[in-house]
Design a protein that fits this description.
Length: about 290
């Protein structure tokens, strides 16, 4: 088997409304989500023994991409040893879904090798995490339930996004717990006039987890206010945070905005929407200009 490789794309939650926790222990959500041009690289090849190589973050046997490979092999009844290399670029613990994207790309690559049918992958994806089913398809979509109901939407007109990751780390579980303890607050709606024209039909957009995240890390509100002042536009949070983002007309504007950020940011990137959650590549990463800003 020749080496297989894929790009796994981050996601941004343009809106995230949360409902009370159900009897299954999960909070139903409705979220407008978009894959964006910030990617990790996954490489998979048959080997003499199982091996996980991680570049750009701490290696863990509980790595979500590794669990995805194991899930596919289990579904196929295969024990063939493989080497999985994960080259991280997407900021971790930021609300950008990098781990879910890595898992989705690994599911797809491994399924082709192990002979697992594509219609089995959404079920395997949901067992790995709420964002993984979306990352299998990607693009622009409306997510409902735990994230298992993925409603694909037509792409919007081109625009760019500036993302800044503050020097804060928040676990998704802790943010949801805080949201429960605060009495399930609603997030502030994003001003319609500040949305790209193609997204205004999905108004109102808000992130209900933002008040909880800012209660756990009060400096996050300061970051948001600072960026909004620097950029001259509203700034909001994606997912359970702490990554913050704003909308821009084009790549040049987004690049200039990202360059004007506090120096202590963990990461920052100017990105554009991309039409799917992962894609196969060969050799080096494909031309970044093909899908816009990186």
């Amino acid at each position: 088997m020749a080496e297989l490789a894929a790009e796994a794309f981050a996601k941004v939650n343009f809106g995230l409304t949360v409902s009370s926790r159900g009897s299954d222990g999960y909070h139903p959500v409705v979220s407008l989500v978009q894959s964006v041009s910030w990617s990790d690289r996954i490489e998979l090849v048959q080997a003499g023994e199982d091996r996980l190589v991680v570049e750009g973050m701490h290696r863990s046997e509980d790595n979500l991409a590794w669990r995805a490979l194991q899930a596919v092999r289990s579904a196929a009844g295969s024990s063939a040893p493989m080497s999985l290399t994960l080259k991280k670029s997407i900021a971790v613990a930021a609300g950008l879904g990098g781990g879910s994207a890595d898992a989705a790309a690994t599911l797809a690559l491994a399924a082709g090798v192990c002979g697992v049918a594509a219609d089995q992958l959404p079920g395997l994806a949901l067992q790995l995490g709420a964002d993984v089913p979306f990352c299998l398809t990607g693009g622009l979509a409306l997510l409902e339930g735990r994230g298992e109901r993925v409603g694909a939407l037509p792409p919007s007109e081109p625009f760019a996004i500036g993302i800044v990751v503050p020097d804060v780390e928040l676990s998704t579980a802790s943010v949801y717990r805080q949201w429960d303890q605060m009495g399930e607050p609603q997030g502030r709606g994003f001003p319609t006039a500040a949305l790209p024209p193609g997204l205004r039909g999905y108004d109102p957009l808000r992130n209900d987890l933002q008040p909880a995240a800012e209660a756990l890390a009060p400096q996050l509100a300061d970051w948001r206010a600072d960026l909004a002042a620097r950029w001259g536009r509203p700034v909001t949070m994606t997912g359970s945070g702490p990554a913050l983002f704003g909308f821009f007309v084009d790549a040049d504007e987004a690049h200039a905005a990202v360059a004007d950020r506090p120096g202590r940011a963990r990461a920052a990137r100017a990105v554009s929407p991309v039409p799917r959650g992962w894609r196969k590549v060969t050799g080096t990463l494909t031309d970044p200009e093909q899908w816009g800003v990186v």
